[in-house]
Design a protein that fits this description.
It comes from Paenibacillus aurantiacus. The chain is mainly α. Helix content is 62%, strand content 3%.
């Protein structure tokens, strides 16, 4: 098997290309709100990731930074950019189907993939446990996107 952390920078290219697409698609006026949402999602996912690792629910085999026991490319790039990308697609659509699609995609596609790649092990965690957490994360991001402090996504 190949040494996956060496490809962490390459794995981060895809989410940034999605973010660039969102910026170039005429949503640059809503960039402040999207960055606020992205930072909120980064904070939530990093916190949950650290807690899960510290409580022994899962364990990462590789530390990108020796001081943090998490896999930062997922928490700081993939998760927030995926949420922002989904928020920009049909922003007037009902949030629950999009939240369910996001949760099922992360729980049953992304998590098994990084488990198969050998990035982390799950001694006390099932992928199904992630679904309600991911739904709540997406719905929180949707709530933040509908607040009136920033320009709406559908303008």
């Amino acid at each position: 098997m190949f040494y996956f952390p060496a490809y962490g920078g390459l794995a981060s290219f895809f989410p940034f290309s999605l973010g660039f697409y969102g910026y170039c698609s005429g949503r640059e006026k809503a960039a402040t709100g999207l960055l606020y949402i992205a930072f909120s999602i980064m904070t939530i996912s990093l916190t949950f990731d650290v807690l899960g690792d510290q409580w022994g629910l899962w364990h990462y085999r590789f530390n990108v930074l020796p001081i943090l026991p998490t896999y930062l490319p997922w928490d700081l790039t993939l998760m927030p950019v995926a949420v922002i990308f989904l928020l920009q697609i049909k922003p007037e659509a009902h949030p629950f189907p999009k939240a369910l699609m996001f949760a099922l995609g992360t729980a049953y596609i992304a998590e098994p993939l990084i488990h198969w790649l050998g990035i982390y092990t799950t001694p006390h965690w099932r992928h199904t446990y992630s679904v309600p957490i991911q739904i709540c994360i997406y719905l929180f991001a949707h709530y933040l996107s509908k607040r009136n402090r920033y320009q709406a996504l559908n303008d």
